[in-house]
Amino acid sequence: MSEDSQRNFRSVYxxxxxFRGVEEKxxxxxxxxxxxxxxxxxxxxSQRFPLPSMYRALVWKVLLGMKPRSW
Length: 71
Hints:
The structure is a single chain. The chain has helices at 3-16, 22-33, 39-48, 53-63. By secondary structure, the protein is mainly alpha-helical. The longest helix has 14 residues, at 3-16. One of its GO terms (biological process) is negative regulation of TOR signaling. It comes from Spermophilus dauricus. This is TBC1 domain family member 7.
């Protein structure tokens, strides 16, 4: 087995038992680093994955229009 297939196996296994992947957190951090936030991408992300507690309030404030989209 190659390194990639082992990682994919682990990712699938962890997802099945209910653990969030590190990739999801990194993806959210990448979305939040942009100068102008993409509301559609944030909305899609928040629907598909649980938001980490450290970013939850910020993301919801942006999605609800309480925080500006650009930093």
